[in-house]
Write a structure and sequence with these properties.
This protein is α+β, with helices and mostly antiparallel strands. The chain folds into five domains: about 150 residues, no CATH class; about 55 residues; about 160 residues, no CATH class; about 90 residues, no CATH class; about 80 residues, no CATH class. Helices cover about 35% and strands about 20% of the residues. The chain has 19 helices and 20 strands. Strands 1, 2, 3, 4, 5, 6, 7, 8 and 9 form a nine-stranded antiparallel sheet that branches. The chain has a seven-stranded mixed sheet with strand order 10-11-15-13-12-16-17, sandwiched between helices. The longest helix has 22 residues. It is elongated. The N and C termini lie far apart (about 155 Å). It comes from Sinanodonta woodiana (Chinese pond mussel).
Amino acid sequence: MDVMKEQQVVLKEIPSGRKDGMYFIISNVDNIIKRSSGKRSEFWDDCGAWVKCASPSTTFIERNGTLLMIVKRQCVYCVERNVNKKRIYEPLQPQPLSNEIIQVHRIYQTLKSSPSGPDQFKRRITWFQKADNLLSDISTNIALAEYIGKFSVRTYHASVKHPLKNVTYIRTKPSVRQRLQHELEQKGVKEVERMVHSETNDDFQQPRGEKQLRNIKHLIARTKHSPSKSGNIADHIVCVEEMTKTSKFVQTVKHLNGLQHPVVTLYNEQQITDIKRFCCIESGSVLGMDKTYNLGDFHVTPTVFKDLSVKKRSTDDHPIVFGPTFIHTNSSTKAYSAFLHDVADNLTDKQLQLLTIGTDEELAFKTAIKRCLPGSTHVLCTRHLKQNANRHMEDIVGFPLNDRQEILDLMFSSNGLVQKTDVDTHQQRLNQLRAVIDDKDSTVCEKTFRSYFDTRLYPMLKEHVIDPVNEGKIKSTWTNNNSESANHILKSATKWKLAELPKFVKLLHQLVTSEQEERCRSLRNMGNYRLSERYLHHLVDFDYWGRMTEEQRDKKTKRFLTDCGKDHPNMMYSIDGRRTATRTPSAGRKPNQIRRKRAERSRTPSKTLSAKRKL
């Protein structure tokens, strides 16, 4: 206090250089403004990273020209006394007013890179908070910075992982950091770096490096695009519940017993119709499911399938489209069953028997599908099965790479176990695979792969891959890549940022609506898609489309969106897909001709046969 009473030079900031056993009087105006807005005080120096040990505050009042330390107990100011080795708090009479209180704030810090011991380098920052009429010879706009101990050699930050790749750590000045943040809001990292280098050579006026600039840039982008604080999760749930009354896309919001948050089911009537058209038919598209993370404070499980009515012009393949989508925070069987029940309620028993649904190995998926979609075919992704088998052989059994690859080839290659074959060939491949596994197991000590293969892997392959392949439900190498592509579409739509629940629902609705509109453009041979061969009879000339009335267009579009396509066995298509023709196998034959057209040839009666007839 005596030091702060003396008339000394008030520095704007703590000067650079060694500070062993020194003290400085610095301006505290900027920190007063920060504390008034709820921010922390910041006292810059060039020593490095400090560890905050304590920041006590002591309260005084001025009585009879002297300072009396007081404490506040149960909202009453008291004087602390020690009587018989016990602390006793005596209330002050009368109680002091707020403008009579003097508070002394202190911050104790230890240099992070300084070794512990009696010479450990420490500092203490002290400032006063009081009314102007109290201790008039001490200003509240100044602070005292004291340094004790021995300053060690400058070093890198103590928390770095690769010290050799880092430079000496010196904290950036707050004024410099604020300026960099202002510049990075409008300019790029490289541009700001070049600008600072061209203006000054002072290291204290420059950033530590490019990484610091990139971190500031990332913080600006995250703050700018962070979800708005328009409400908490309860407000978002209420908003989505209200959508069920106004939107045909939000079907149900269910509160299940045992789950903290409700589950939301999203789809429109056209998505259900498309599932019936493209998934619930012979050799139809597989309805894939996969859970997506990092879209918000919830999980998203969309269903995807391929639209067989159109093809992408760029790849000449059927596009991936969204089906019903499930939003949840719990991944239990109970949660998935609530969603799949909503889907199953829209399908008949015959359609369920034709439906093929594909997932990964998640147990909750498998149980819910068996419970809610009886009669449907459940297939598993061979890519996930292959990865899990390889991980088990590597981490648990300990097979080398060559042995693992040999076993995986016997299961998943073009001549592997999962390919479509007859019963005898399949049994031969299975016996060969088991013999190889037994041979590899003999080289390891403890756990073997044979038990995992017989009890877990092969039963899953048999039920969810091999049997569906032999029945013609899927190809032998079916993967859930369509769901992975859909997950990428969702994250790209949210710009890889977390989204609030109501905003995500609206965004998904826009995606589905835009997707359906783009497919309808193929009716007039426009847009990214073209009609596939089985739907070419819906093609309308562009000029004729312009002359159609709105009612005629709606009728034409509705007929297209509900059609399952024509599949005539003798229908032939041109290479460009614009012309169809019916093949007529009997055309060009003679009446009553039995042999093939190539094998039949014209014959003339022989001369001997004519002579015999004359006789």
